[in-house]
Amino acid sequence: MTASRLDLDSEQVGRDLVTLVLTVVELLRQLMERQAIRRVEQGDLSDEQADEIGTTLMLLDQRMTELCEQHGVRPEDLNLDLGPLGTLLPRN
């Protein structure tokens, strides 16, 4: 049996790790956004709380955009294909 050698491109590994981390953060951001919308629709939040959550989610979305640009990751790169299950993130 011959030993196979694994060639790792450290730059690509770093980019893949950043993409994975940003994917997890984006998934959490979308889940938080859906939860906030559900709570607003149910009337669980005061107007002040709804405004604060909206502002926070907007700032988080802007920061995600900045991080993607900073690391050369496109938003569509964050949507992992899970095969028969479809994609990780809903398509907009």
From TrEMBL:
Signal peptide: none annotated. One of its GO terms (cellular component) is gas vesicle. It is found in: Gas vesicle. InterPro entries: GvpK. Coiled coil: none annotated. Keywords: Gas vesicle. The keyword Plastid does not apply. It comes from the Bacteria. GO terms for biological process: gas vesicle organization. Its main location: other. The keyword Hydrolase does not apply. It holds the Pfam family GvpK. This is Gas vesicle protein GvpK. It comes from Streptomyces phaeofaciens. The lineage of its organism: Bacteria, Bacillati, Actinomycetota, Actinomycetes, Kitasatosporales.
